[in-house]
Amino acid sequence: xxxxxxxxxxxxxxxxxxxxxxxxxxxxxxxxxxxxxxxxxxxxxxxxxxxxxxxxxxxxxxxxxxxxxxxxxxxxxxxxxxxxxxxxxxxxxxxxxxxxxxxxxxxxxxxxxxxxxxxxxxxxxxxxxxxxxxxxxxxxxxxxxxxxxxxxxxxxxxxxxxxxxxxxxxxxxxxxxxxxxxxxxxxxxxxxxxxxxxxxxxxxxxxxxxxxxxxxxxxxxxxxxxxxxxxxxxxxxxxxxxxxxxxxxxxxxxxxxxxxxxxxxxxxxxxxxxxxxxxxxxxxxxxxxxxxxxxxxxxxxxxxxxxxxxxxxxxxxxxxxxxxxxxxxxxxxxxxxxxxxxxxxxxxxxxxxxxxxxxxxxxxxxxxxxxxxxxxxxxxxxxxxxxxxxxxxxxxxxxxxxxxxxxxxxxxxxxxxxxxxxxxxxxxxxxxxxxxxxxxxxxxxxxxxxxxxxxxxxxxxxxxxxxxxxx
Length: 471
Ligand SMILES: Cc1cc2nc3c(=O)[nH]c(=O)nc-3n(C[C@H](O)[C@H](O)[C@H](O)COP(=O)(O)OP(=O)(O)OC[C@H]3O[C@@H](n4cnc5c(N)ncnc54)[C@H](O)[C@@H]3O)c2cc1C
Prior knowledge:
The protein is an alpha/beta fold. The protein folds into three domains: 3-52 and 227-302 and 414-470, 3-Layer(bba) Sandwich (FAD/NAD(P)-binding domain), CATH 3.50.50.60; 110-203, protoporphyrinogen ix oxidase, domain 3 (Orthogonal Bundle), CATH 1.10.3110.10; 305-412, Polyamine Oxidase, Chain A, domain 2 (Alpha-Beta Complex), CATH 3.90.660. The structure holds flavin-adenine dinucleotide.
């Protein structure tokens, strides 16, 4: 068996070497922070390349993202990282156009002021035509409803229903927030899944009456012209050449004296002082199961949803269909039948995806508790999503090319009680495998901003352990 010993800790007991398991944006960001702090870092990644959920494919000769597609500029972290990495020249701003919501009566515009941070303006909601007259009346009563209790962990859809009425949850919160999380807004935790909204509700008695900060200048969403994977490639390129080992799945983490031994599938072992575990939670559960069965049990039960992305190339004339010409995409409430969860009209939304030969559209399917898309073969899935898109938009052309990318058990469901469950797993790990820090979307949520925050927290946790050991 090949043994790779990193230098033992000096007499001070100072942690010097760390392993980061998983080279998605979380693992690589944690690695960067730890490397900058002077630690010897080794990143172990199962796949042949870095990036995880930042992945692109070629469709009809065009490169497009099939994992994370955009950065919400109001959320802290990703834009700053893009600047730090010198990628800001490649930023592309999303075009301002309508996002459609599919209703039983056709497409209606998502009201302005309705963002991933919740509803803030009533007038656009009233004008959008998404709510019935009774639903509008009920939404307008929000200032009379008692304040949100910041100490209670509640579901985001349940709390917004209490404040604005059932229609707002079913027709707006479900397609927007439920779509982003591929989840059920009546089980997703307000505090864990939508911390920004929870903060607003804790600070303001009414979302409608609160004094809104002046609207931010600049685009709400941006992306990178060369694809979001440029971020993870740039992060990897800044690490020392021998720090990154791809195609190296980790199989086990176990304690050895005061250190940790990482066993990889090729039979090698690496001994380190700390570990950032930035893999899917079900993998993390397997890696720690031998020495921390209690942590493994919690991690193994964190719920996920599977999603499928279908990248479609239509003839260029598809861009002239009014719904596609005037919109950046559409969202579908879970209460409507069908598989289609959302679609992004890439050629309308992003200037760099406007091509003479094709119109690019990205469709998605799959939510918590709905795995139908995962059981269809690729051709059947493409047919179904194309048919539903055509019905929703009036598109009559057939796609020229399509690529399917499935993401099984990828979208974390931060349900009510998530923080409590996670605290239990972290306490068990601290007892059984001290020096192992959990990071990434399974714990912090699916947005890139949450992943970056969690990477920094994990790096800080290991650096703090180091400082405590030095004292
Ligand atoms: C379809 C889709 C669309 C999305 N759209 C957006 C968006 O527009 N904006 C946004 O902000 N977020 C979006 N997200 C969410 C965002 O992409 C993710 O939250 C984020 O990329 C997760 O990063 P991560 O590093 O935590 O995990 P991952 O990217 O999943 O990385 C984990 C890594 O661990 C590796 N690994 C697994 N097992 C092992 C092992 N045994 N040993 C070593 N390595 C292992 C994996 O190969 C992988 O590279 C989207 C996600 C999906 C799936």
